[in-house]
Amino acid sequence: MAETLNPALRDRLQEERDRLHDQLRQMGVGPGGRLDFDDGFADSGQVTAERGEVEALANSLVETLSEVEHALEKFDAGTYGVCENCGAEIPEARLEAKPAARLCINCASARR
Q1: Region 62-83: what's the mean pLDDT?
Q2: What phi and psi values does residue 19 have, to the nearest 5 degrees?
Q3: Can you tell me the distance from the alpha carbon of 13 to that of 79, in angstroms, rounded to the nearest whole number?
Q4: Which of 62, 70, 100, 103 could form a disulfide with 33 if both were Cys (CB 3.0 to 4.6 A apart)?
C-alpha cells in the first residue's frame, strides 16, 4: 500500500523523527532513552519533583519516537497504512491526521 500513499506522509514522519531526536538531545536524553543528570543536580524536594516531570516528558517523547520509527519501518516494508489489528487499509485522511497510526479508526475506537 505504501506505493499508493502520498509520499509527503513519509517526509512528515522523517521530520517528526528528527524533531523528536533534537528535543530529546536538548533535554539531555542519552542512549537508551535515559536522562543524563550531572552529579551536581540538586536533590531537594522541588528539584526532585521537577526532575520527575522532565523524566515523564522524556519518556513520552521516547514513546512517540518509537511509534514514528515503527511507522517508517512499515513504510519501508510496504505495510504502512495497514491496520495491525484487522488488516484493513487505514484511510489516508487518518494517516494525514496521525501519520504513525497503527490501527484503523474502528480498531482504535474498540480499544478505548
Answers
A1: 95
A2: -65, -45
A3: 15
A4: 62
